[in-house]
Amino acid sequence: MDTIREGLALVVVAIGSAFSVIGVLGILRLPDVYARLHAAGKVSVFGAALLALAVVLLAPGTLGRALILVALLVIAGPVVSHAIASAAYRMNVPIKHAVRNDLARVQGDNRSEEIQ
Predict the structure, then answer these.
(1) Most C-beta atoms within 10 A of its C-beta, which of 4, 46, 58, 87?
(2) 30 SS3 class
(3) Other C-beta atoms within 10 Å of 63: how many?
């Protein structure tokens, strides 16, 4: 039974690490801060949650701590990404390859002319 659990933990670690690597590649390859935040925010939560699951599989006594960690990541990840994106938008960081800018109409910016 221990070898099955260890093998499953190894698979979960590999998948979690793959998610983390994909997030890093997204941060390196995507063109602007908004797309990079999307890659970092979405993928890193899954990677960390899967790594926490692997820890639970190897040390079952850590289930409570792992659940708290995953809950904090799921709650804080989108909030932090939104705060960084909002700050970047207010600092006039340009949006590359934007099709439309819904915030320009709400805030009365003139950035909608830049996009077209």
Answers:
(1) 46
(2) coil
(3) 14
Residues of the chain with pLDDT under 50: 112-113, 116
Question: Both tokens of residue 31?
Answer: 């063109």
Here the tokens at position 29 are: 């390859």
Could you tell me how far CA 31 lies from the centroid of its own chain? 16
> Whole-prediction pTM value?
0.73
Q: Closest Cα partner for 53 from 36, 78, 73?
A: 73
Over the stretch 55-88, which tens digit does the pLDDT of each residue have? 999 998 999 999 999 999 889 988 898 899 899 9
Number of residues written out for the chain: 116
CA trace torsion 107, 111, 112, 113 (10° rounding)? 140
User: Furthest-apart CA pair in the chain: how many Å?
Assistant: 63
